[in-house]
Specification:
Elements lengths: L3 H5 L1 H15 L2 H25 L1 H8 L3 H55 L3 H33 L4 H24 L4 H18 L21 H6 L4 H30 L5 H29 L1 H21 L3 H15 L2 H9 L6 H30 L1 H4 L1 H13 L7 H24 L3 H12 L6
Helix pairs in contact: 3-5, 3-6, 3-7, 3-8, 4-5, 5-6, 5-8, 5-15, 6-15, 7-11, 7-14, 10-11, 10-13, 10-14, 10-15, 10-17, 11-12, 11-13, 12-13, 12-17, 14-15
InterPro entries: MFS, MFS_dom, MFS_trans_sf, MFS_Transporter
Membrane topology: Multi-pass membrane protein
Protein name: Fucose permease
Length: 457
Protein backbone atom coordinates (compact mmCIF):
# COMPACT_ATOMS: atom_id res chain seq x y z
CA UNK A 1 0.00 0.00 0.00
CA UNK A 2 1.26 3.46 -0.88
CA UNK A 3 1.63 6.02 1.92
CA UNK A 4 -0.40 9.10 0.80
CA UNK A 5 1.91 11.37 2.82
CA UNK A 6 4.92 9.98 1.01
CA UNK A 7 3.16 10.36 -2.31
CA UNK A 8 2.42 14.03 -1.69
CA UNK A 9 5.82 14.72 -0.17
CA UNK A 10 8.61 13.06 -2.18
CA UNK A 11 11.24 14.66 0.07
CA UNK A 12 9.76 13.01 3.13
CA UNK A 13 9.65 9.69 1.29
CA UNK A 14 13.29 10.04 0.36
CA UNK A 15 14.20 10.89 3.95
CA UNK A 16 12.22 7.92 5.24
CA UNK A 17 13.91 5.64 2.71
CA UNK A 18 17.32 6.95 3.75
CA UNK A 19 16.48 6.44 7.41
CA UNK A 20 15.29 2.89 6.78
CA UNK A 21 18.42 2.18 4.79
CA UNK A 22 20.55 3.64 7.57
CA UNK A 23 18.99 1.39 10.19
CA UNK A 24 19.19 -1.76 8.05
CA UNK A 25 22.62 -1.31 6.49
CA UNK A 26 24.94 -0.98 9.52
CA UNK A 27 24.44 -4.66 10.34
CA UNK A 28 25.66 -5.82 6.93
CA UNK A 29 29.37 -4.83 7.15
CA UNK A 30 29.66 -6.38 10.61
CA UNK A 31 27.78 -9.48 9.42
CA UNK A 32 30.04 -9.74 6.36
CA UNK A 33 33.27 -9.19 8.28
CA UNK A 34 32.30 -11.67 10.99
CA UNK A 35 31.53 -14.27 8.33
CA UNK A 36 34.94 -13.70 6.72
CA UNK A 37 36.54 -14.19 10.15
CA UNK A 38 34.55 -17.38 10.80
CA UNK A 39 35.80 -18.81 7.50
CA UNK A 40 39.37 -17.97 8.60
CA UNK A 41 38.89 -19.54 12.05
CA UNK A 42 37.51 -22.73 10.53
CA UNK A 43 40.45 -22.92 8.12
CA UNK A 44 42.93 -22.30 10.94
CA UNK A 45 41.46 -25.19 12.94
CA UNK A 46 41.52 -27.57 9.98
CA UNK A 47 45.11 -26.75 9.02
CA UNK A 48 46.22 -27.15 12.63
CA UNK A 49 45.08 -30.78 12.49
CA UNK A 50 46.16 -31.51 8.92
CA UNK A 51 49.71 -30.20 9.22
CA UNK A 52 50.30 -32.30 12.35
CA UNK A 53 49.16 -35.62 10.82
CA UNK A 54 52.78 -36.89 10.62
CA UNK A 55 53.23 -36.13 14.34
CA UNK A 56 49.94 -37.88 15.18
CA UNK A 57 51.07 -40.88 13.10
CA UNK A 58 54.41 -41.04 14.96
CA UNK A 59 52.86 -40.59 18.42
CA UNK A 60 50.39 -43.40 17.77
CA UNK A 61 52.95 -45.58 15.92
CA UNK A 62 50.63 -46.48 13.04
CA UNK A 63 51.11 -47.20 9.32
CA UNK A 64 49.44 -45.33 6.39
CA UNK A 65 46.49 -47.73 6.30
CA UNK A 66 45.72 -47.04 9.96
CA UNK A 67 46.21 -43.31 9.36
CA UNK A 68 43.53 -43.64 6.70
CA UNK A 69 41.21 -45.30 9.21
CA UNK A 70 41.94 -42.52 11.71
CA UNK A 71 41.13 -39.83 9.15
CA UNK A 72 37.96 -41.75 8.33
CA UNK A 73 36.84 -40.82 11.86
CA UNK A 74 36.93 -37.17 10.85
CA UNK A 75 35.15 -38.03 7.60
CA UNK A 76 32.42 -40.00 9.36
CA UNK A 77 31.82 -37.14 11.78
CA UNK A 78 31.71 -34.72 8.85
CA UNK A 79 29.11 -36.78 6.99
CA UNK A 80 26.92 -37.04 10.11
CA UNK A 81 27.23 -33.29 10.58
CA UNK A 82 26.43 -32.57 6.95
CA UNK A 83 23.36 -34.80 6.91
CA UNK A 84 22.05 -33.05 10.01
CA UNK A 85 23.26 -29.52 9.21
CA UNK A 86 20.16 -28.23 7.44
CA UNK A 87 18.02 -29.49 10.32
CA UNK A 88 20.35 -27.96 12.92
CA UNK A 89 20.29 -24.61 11.07
CA UNK A 90 16.49 -24.76 10.81
CA UNK A 91 16.23 -25.49 14.54
CA UNK A 92 18.88 -23.15 15.98
CA UNK A 93 19.43 -20.55 13.27
CA UNK A 94 22.77 -19.51 11.82
CA UNK A 95 24.04 -17.53 14.81
CA UNK A 96 23.57 -20.20 17.50
CA UNK A 97 24.65 -23.01 15.16
CA UNK A 98 27.98 -21.29 14.47
CA UNK A 99 28.47 -20.49 18.17
CA UNK A 100 28.12 -24.18 19.04
CA UNK A 101 30.06 -25.53 16.05
CA UNK A 102 33.23 -23.51 16.65
CA UNK A 103 33.31 -24.25 20.38
CA UNK A 104 32.78 -27.99 19.82
CA UNK A 105 35.45 -27.89 17.10
CA UNK A 106 37.88 -26.58 19.72
CA UNK A 107 36.96 -29.45 22.04
CA UNK A 108 37.72 -31.90 19.24
CA UNK A 109 41.23 -30.47 18.79
CA UNK A 110 41.98 -30.91 22.49
CA UNK A 111 40.79 -34.54 22.46
CA UNK A 112 42.90 -35.33 19.37
CA UNK A 113 46.03 -33.93 20.98
CA UNK A 114 45.51 -35.69 24.31
CA UNK A 115 44.56 -38.98 22.65
CA UNK A 116 47.54 -39.10 20.30
CA UNK A 117 50.40 -37.57 22.30
CA UNK A 118 49.50 -37.77 25.99
CA UNK A 119 47.57 -41.07 26.10
CA UNK A 120 48.83 -42.77 22.91
CA UNK A 121 45.28 -44.01 22.41
CA UNK A 122 44.01 -44.64 18.89
CA UNK A 123 40.33 -44.87 20.03
CA UNK A 124 40.46 -41.52 21.88
CA UNK A 125 42.14 -39.80 18.94
CA UNK A 126 39.48 -41.33 16.69
CA UNK A 127 36.68 -39.97 18.92
CA UNK A 128 38.37 -36.56 18.85
CA UNK A 129 38.30 -36.62 15.07
CA UNK A 130 34.63 -37.64 15.07
CA UNK A 131 33.83 -34.60 17.22
CA UNK A 132 36.06 -32.35 15.13
CA UNK A 133 34.58 -33.56 11.84
CA UNK A 134 30.97 -33.22 13.02
CA UNK A 135 31.40 -29.67 14.27
CA UNK A 136 33.51 -28.63 11.27
CA UNK A 137 30.79 -29.63 8.81
CA UNK A 138 28.05 -27.82 10.76
CA UNK A 139 30.29 -24.74 10.71
CA UNK A 140 31.05 -25.29 7.01
CA UNK A 141 27.41 -25.33 5.92
CA UNK A 142 26.43 -22.53 8.30
CA UNK A 143 29.14 -20.12 7.17
CA UNK A 144 28.49 -20.87 3.48
CA UNK A 145 24.78 -20.19 3.93
CA UNK A 146 25.62 -16.89 5.64
CA UNK A 147 28.00 -16.06 2.79
CA UNK A 148 25.37 -16.77 0.14
CA UNK A 149 22.81 -14.62 1.99
CA UNK A 150 25.31 -11.76 2.09
CA UNK A 151 25.96 -12.20 -1.64
CA UNK A 152 22.26 -11.82 -2.35
CA UNK A 153 21.94 -8.86 0.01
CA UNK A 154 24.91 -7.00 -1.51
CA UNK A 155 24.34 -8.27 -5.09
CA UNK A 156 27.97 -9.19 -5.70
CA UNK A 157 30.16 -12.29 -5.68
CA UNK A 158 31.80 -12.85 -2.30
CA UNK A 159 32.00 -16.60 -1.61
CA UNK A 160 35.34 -17.14 -3.41
CA UNK A 161 36.82 -14.33 -1.28
CA UNK A 162 35.31 -15.88 1.84
CA UNK A 163 36.89 -19.19 0.90
CA UNK A 164 40.12 -17.24 0.39
CA UNK A 165 39.73 -16.17 4.02
CA UNK A 166 39.41 -19.87 4.86
CA UNK A 167 42.59 -20.54 2.89
CA UNK A 168 44.28 -17.65 4.69
CA UNK A 169 43.30 -19.35 7.92
CA UNK A 170 44.87 -22.59 6.68
CA UNK A 171 48.04 -20.70 5.69
CA UNK A 172 48.22 -19.32 9.23
CA UNK A 173 47.44 -22.66 10.84
CA UNK A 174 49.85 -24.54 8.57
CA UNK A 175 52.60 -21.95 9.09
CA UNK A 176 52.26 -22.11 12.86
CA UNK A 177 52.26 -25.93 12.69
CA UNK A 178 55.45 -25.95 10.61
CA UNK A 179 57.08 -23.60 13.13
CA UNK A 180 56.10 -25.59 16.21
CA UNK A 181 57.14 -28.84 14.50
CA UNK A 182 60.55 -27.31 13.80
CA UNK A 183 60.94 -26.51 17.51
CA UNK A 184 59.51 -29.89 18.63
CA UNK A 185 56.59 -28.37 20.55
CA UNK A 186 54.52 -31.10 22.20
CA UNK A 187 51.49 -31.99 20.04
CA UNK A 188 48.93 -31.75 22.84
CA UNK A 189 50.17 -28.29 23.83
CA UNK A 190 50.02 -27.03 20.23
CA UNK A 191 46.49 -28.34 19.62
CA UNK A 192 45.23 -27.06 22.99
CA UNK A 193 46.49 -23.51 22.37
CA UNK A 194 44.94 -23.58 18.87
CA UNK A 195 41.69 -24.79 20.45
CA UNK A 196 41.58 -21.77 22.77
CA UNK A 197 41.89 -19.45 19.76
CA UNK A 198 39.07 -21.24 17.90
CA UNK A 199 36.82 -21.25 21.00
CA UNK A 200 37.28 -17.50 21.51
CA UNK A 201 36.33 -16.95 17.85
CA UNK A 202 33.24 -19.10 18.40
CA UNK A 203 32.15 -17.09 21.41
CA UNK A 204 32.62 -13.66 19.80
CA UNK A 205 32.16 -13.72 16.02
CA UNK A 206 28.63 -15.20 15.63
CA UNK A 207 27.26 -12.35 17.77
CA UNK A 208 27.51 -10.15 14.66
CA UNK A 209 25.32 -12.47 12.58
CA UNK A 210 21.73 -11.17 12.42
CA UNK A 211 18.60 -13.22 12.88
CA UNK A 212 17.12 -13.54 9.38
CA UNK A 213 13.54 -12.37 9.58
CA UNK A 214 13.30 -12.00 5.81
CA UNK A 215 15.23 -13.42 2.90
CA UNK A 216 17.50 -11.30 0.67
CA UNK A 217 14.69 -10.74 -1.83
CA UNK A 218 12.76 -8.88 0.87
CA UNK A 219 10.08 -11.56 1.25
CA UNK A 220 9.29 -13.07 4.69
CA UNK A 221 11.07 -16.33 5.31
CA UNK A 222 9.03 -19.47 5.78
CA UNK A 223 10.10 -22.30 8.07
CA UNK A 224 11.08 -25.25 5.89
CA UNK A 225 9.64 -28.62 6.79
CA UNK A 226 11.55 -31.87 7.05
CA UNK A 227 9.87 -33.02 3.85
CA UNK A 228 11.00 -29.85 2.04
CA UNK A 229 14.60 -30.37 3.12
CA UNK A 230 14.64 -34.05 2.13
CA UNK A 231 13.07 -33.39 -1.29
CA UNK A 232 16.23 -31.50 -2.28
CA UNK A 233 17.91 -34.88 -2.80
CA UNK A 234 15.64 -35.58 -5.78
CA UNK A 235 16.74 -32.52 -7.78
CA UNK A 236 19.02 -33.47 -10.71
CA UNK A 237 20.82 -30.10 -10.74
CA UNK A 238 21.57 -30.31 -7.03
CA UNK A 239 23.03 -33.81 -7.44
CA UNK A 240 25.12 -32.71 -10.44
CA UNK A 241 26.53 -29.81 -8.42
CA UNK A 242 27.30 -32.40 -5.77
CA UNK A 243 29.45 -34.27 -8.31
CA UNK A 244 31.40 -31.07 -8.93
CA UNK A 245 32.05 -30.80 -5.22
CA UNK A 246 32.90 -34.51 -5.04
CA UNK A 247 35.77 -34.10 -7.51
CA UNK A 248 36.98 -30.68 -6.45
CA UNK A 249 36.70 -31.39 -2.73
CA UNK A 250 38.76 -34.51 -3.38
CA UNK A 251 41.34 -32.34 -5.18
CA UNK A 252 41.52 -30.09 -2.13
CA UNK A 253 41.02 -32.75 0.52
CA UNK A 254 43.63 -35.15 -0.81
CA UNK A 255 46.23 -32.43 -0.30
CA UNK A 256 44.86 -31.76 3.19
CA UNK A 257 44.98 -35.44 4.13
CA UNK A 258 48.02 -36.76 2.32
CA UNK A 259 50.33 -34.09 0.87
CA UNK A 260 52.49 -33.53 3.96
CA UNK A 261 52.70 -37.27 4.65
CA UNK A 262 53.41 -38.15 1.00
CA UNK A 263 56.26 -35.64 0.92
CA UNK A 264 57.72 -37.23 4.08
CA UNK A 265 57.25 -40.88 3.05
CA UNK A 266 57.67 -40.82 -0.75
CA UNK A 267 60.02 -37.84 -1.21
CA UNK A 268 62.12 -38.21 1.96
CA UNK A 269 61.40 -34.78 3.45
CA UNK A 270 61.35 -34.18 7.20
CA UNK A 271 58.20 -33.18 9.10
CA UNK A 272 58.84 -29.43 8.91
CA UNK A 273 59.49 -29.62 5.14
CA UNK A 274 56.35 -31.72 4.62
CA UNK A 275 54.30 -29.13 6.54
CA UNK A 276 55.94 -26.39 4.44
CA UNK A 277 54.83 -28.12 1.21
CA UNK A 278 51.27 -28.19 2.51
CA UNK A 279 51.58 -24.49 3.36
CA UNK A 280 52.65 -23.78 -0.25
CA UNK A 281 49.49 -25.54 -1.39
CA UNK A 282 47.30 -23.41 0.89
CA UNK A 283 49.02 -20.20 -0.26
CA UNK A 284 48.32 -21.17 -3.89
CA UNK A 285 44.68 -21.84 -3.02
CA UNK A 286 44.39 -18.45 -1.34
CA UNK A 287 45.82 -16.70 -4.40
CA UNK A 288 43.47 -18.68 -6.66
CA UNK A 289 40.41 -17.69 -4.65
CA UNK A 290 41.29 -14.01 -4.46
CA UNK A 291 42.11 -13.76 -8.17
CA UNK A 292 39.39 -16.21 -9.10
CA UNK A 293 36.64 -13.78 -8.12
CA UNK A 294 37.70 -11.50 -10.97
CA UNK A 295 37.96 -14.44 -13.38
CA UNK A 296 34.49 -15.74 -12.51
CA UNK A 297 32.94 -12.31 -13.00
CA UNK A 298 34.55 -12.05 -16.43
CA UNK A 299 33.95 -15.52 -17.88
CA UNK A 300 31.25 -17.07 -15.66
CA UNK A 301 31.11 -20.09 -13.40
CA UNK A 302 31.25 -22.90 -15.94
CA UNK A 303 34.40 -21.86 -17.86
CA UNK A 304 36.08 -21.03 -14.53
CA UNK A 305 35.28 -24.49 -13.18
CA UNK A 306 36.55 -26.27 -16.29
CA UNK A 307 39.75 -24.20 -16.34
CA UNK A 308 40.29 -24.92 -12.63
CA UNK A 309 39.91 -28.65 -13.23
CA UNK A 310 42.52 -28.58 -16.00
CA UNK A 311 45.03 -26.76 -13.77
CA UNK A 312 44.41 -29.18 -10.90
CA UNK A 313 44.94 -32.21 -13.15
CA UNK A 314 48.18 -30.84 -14.62
CA UNK A 315 49.53 -29.91 -11.19
CA UNK A 316 48.58 -33.18 -9.52
CA UNK A 317 50.04 -35.33 -12.30
CA UNK A 318 53.25 -33.29 -12.13
CA UNK A 319 53.58 -33.87 -8.39
CA UNK A 320 52.91 -37.60 -8.78
CA UNK A 321 55.22 -38.34 -11.72
CA UNK A 322 58.18 -35.96 -11.44
CA UNK A 323 60.59 -36.32 -8.50
CA UNK A 324 62.27 -32.93 -8.54
CA UNK A 325 62.02 -30.31 -5.78
CA UNK A 326 61.41 -27.31 -8.05
CA UNK A 327 58.99 -29.16 -10.32
CA UNK A 328 57.16 -30.52 -7.28
CA UNK A 329 56.64 -26.99 -5.94
CA UNK A 330 55.39 -25.82 -9.35
CA UNK A 331 53.00 -28.77 -9.46
CA UNK A 332 51.73 -28.05 -5.94
CA UNK A 333 51.08 -24.42 -6.91
CA UNK A 334 49.09 -25.46 -10.02
CA UNK A 335 47.24 -28.07 -7.97
CA UNK A 336 46.36 -25.46 -5.32
CA UNK A 337 45.18 -22.84 -7.83
CA UNK A 338 43.18 -25.48 -9.73
CA UNK A 339 41.48 -26.73 -6.57
CA UNK A 340 40.69 -23.23 -5.30
CA UNK A 341 37.39 -22.37 -7.02
CA UNK A 342 35.50 -25.65 -7.24
CA UNK A 343 34.15 -25.72 -3.71
CA UNK A 344 33.06 -22.06 -3.34
CA UNK A 345 31.50 -21.95 -6.81
CA UNK A 346 29.64 -25.19 -6.14
CA UNK A 347 28.32 -23.77 -2.87
CA UNK A 348 27.35 -20.52 -4.57
CA UNK A 349 25.53 -22.44 -7.32
CA UNK A 350 23.63 -24.48 -4.74
CA UNK A 351 22.53 -21.26 -3.03
CA UNK A 352 21.15 -19.55 -6.17
CA UNK A 353 17.69 -19.64 -4.56
CA UNK A 354 18.12 -18.21 -1.03
CA UNK A 355 14.87 -19.77 0.21
CA UNK A 356 16.35 -23.26 -0.22
CA UNK A 357 19.99 -22.33 0.29
CA UNK A 358 20.54 -24.18 3.58
CA UNK A 359 19.06 -27.47 2.39
CA UNK A 360 20.80 -27.39 -1.00
CA UNK A 361 24.17 -26.33 0.41
CA UNK A 362 23.83 -29.17 2.93
CA UNK A 363 23.00 -31.67 0.19
CA UNK A 364 25.81 -30.78 -2.23
CA UNK A 365 28.30 -30.51 0.61
CA UNK A 366 27.27 -33.99 1.75
CA UNK A 367 27.94 -35.38 -1.72
CA UNK A 368 31.22 -33.48 -1.88
CA UNK A 369 32.34 -34.57 1.57
CA UNK A 370 31.66 -38.17 0.62
CA UNK A 371 35.19 -37.85 -0.76
CA UNK A 372 36.45 -37.30 2.77
CA UNK A 373 34.65 -40.45 3.95
CA UNK A 374 35.81 -42.91 1.32
CA UNK A 375 39.01 -41.14 0.27
CA UNK A 376 41.33 -41.50 3.28
CA UNK A 377 41.00 -45.27 3.79
CA UNK A 378 41.03 -46.02 0.06
CA UNK A 379 44.11 -43.88 -0.64
CA UNK A 380 45.79 -45.22 2.50
CA UNK A 381 45.20 -48.85 1.51
CA UNK A 382 46.30 -48.25 -2.10
CA UNK A 383 49.24 -46.19 -0.85
CA UNK A 384 50.45 -49.13 1.23
CA UNK A 385 50.90 -51.10 -2.01
CA UNK A 386 52.02 -48.52 -4.59
CA UNK A 387 52.92 -45.41 -2.55
CA UNK A 388 50.80 -42.46 -1.49
CA UNK A 389 51.67 -40.31 -4.50
CA UNK A 390 50.69 -43.00 -7.01
CA UNK A 391 47.45 -43.58 -5.08
CA UNK A 392 46.54 -39.94 -5.77
CA UNK A 393 45.92 -40.87 -9.44
CA UNK A 394 42.44 -41.76 -8.20
CA UNK A 395 41.89 -38.07 -7.54
CA UNK A 396 42.68 -37.20 -11.15
CA UNK A 397 39.73 -39.30 -12.35
CA UNK A 398 37.36 -37.59 -9.91
CA UNK A 399 38.48 -34.16 -11.10
CA UNK A 400 37.66 -35.21 -14.68
CA UNK A 401 34.13 -36.11 -13.51
CA UNK A 402 33.83 -32.69 -11.87
CA UNK A 403 34.80 -30.98 -15.12
CA UNK A 404 32.16 -32.96 -17.03
CA UNK A 405 29.47 -31.98 -14.50
CA UNK A 406 30.46 -28.29 -14.48
CA UNK A 407 27.60 -27.03 -16.74
CA UNK A 408 25.18 -27.75 -13.86
CA UNK A 409 26.67 -24.77 -11.99
CA UNK A 410 25.44 -22.24 -14.55
CA UNK A 411 23.63 -19.34 -12.86
CA UNK A 412 19.91 -19.98 -12.44
CA UNK A 413 16.86 -19.00 -10.41
CA UNK A 414 17.03 -15.94 -8.18
CA UNK A 415 20.77 -15.43 -8.76
CA UNK A 416 20.32 -15.33 -12.56
CA UNK A 417 17.41 -12.92 -12.33
CA UNK A 418 19.34 -10.74 -9.91
CA UNK A 419 22.25 -10.65 -12.33
CA UNK A 420 20.01 -9.52 -15.17
CA UNK A 421 18.40 -6.85 -13.00
CA UNK A 422 21.80 -5.67 -11.78
CA UNK A 423 23.06 -5.47 -15.35
CA UNK A 424 20.02 -3.46 -16.42
CA UNK A 425 20.33 -1.17 -13.42
CA UNK A 426 24.02 -0.65 -14.08
CA UNK A 427 23.35 0.26 -17.70
CA UNK A 428 20.60 2.68 -16.73
CA UNK A 429 22.74 4.20 -13.96
CA UNK A 430 25.65 4.58 -16.37
CA UNK A 431 23.41 6.38 -18.87
CA UNK A 432 22.00 8.70 -16.23
CA UNK A 433 25.46 9.30 -14.80
CA UNK A 434 26.76 10.27 -18.22
CA UNK A 435 23.86 12.60 -18.79
CA UNK A 436 24.13 14.32 -15.42
CA UNK A 437 27.89 14.26 -15.09
CA UNK A 438 27.68 13.00 -11.51
CA UNK A 439 25.19 10.26 -10.64
CA UNK A 440 24.79 8.25 -7.49
CA UNK A 441 25.69 5.08 -9.36
CA UNK A 442 29.35 5.97 -9.28
CA UNK A 443 29.22 6.36 -5.53
CA UNK A 444 27.36 3.09 -5.12
CA UNK A 445 29.79 1.10 -7.26
CA UNK A 446 32.77 2.68 -5.55
CA UNK A 447 31.42 1.75 -2.15
CA UNK A 448 30.70 -1.79 -3.32
CA UNK A 449 34.23 -2.26 -4.61
CA UNK A 450 35.91 -1.09 -1.45
CA UNK A 451 33.53 -3.06 0.72
CA UNK A 452 34.62 -6.39 -0.71
CA UNK A 453 38.27 -5.64 -0.95
CA UNK A 454 37.98 -4.91 -4.65
CA UNK A 455 35.81 -7.80 -5.78
CA UNK A 456 32.69 -6.44 -7.37
CA UNK A 457 30.37 -8.89 -9.03
Amino acid sequence: MTDPTAASNPGAAASAGTAASTTAKPRVPAWRNATFAIFAANGFAMATWVARIPAVRDDLGIDPARVGVLIAGLSAGAIIGLLSSSHVLALLGGRRSLHAALVIQAVGLVVIGLGAEALHSFPIAFVGLLIFGFSSSICDVGMNVEGSLIEHREKRTLLPLMHAAWSLGTVTGGGVAALVAQFDVVLSVHLSVAAVIVAIAGLILPRFIPKHHEDPTGEPTEKSTLRDRLSIWLEPRTLAIGLILLGMAFAEGSANDWLALAMVDDRGLDHAEGAAMFTIFTVAMTIGRVGGTIVVNRIGRVPALIGSAVLAIVGLVTVILIDNPVTTIVGIVLWGIGASLGFPLGMSAAADDPKKAAARVSAVATVGYFAFLVGPPVIGIIGDSIGLLNALLLVVGLIVIAAIASPAARESGVRARAGKVAGTDAAESGSSGTASGTGSSGTASGTGSSGSGGAAS
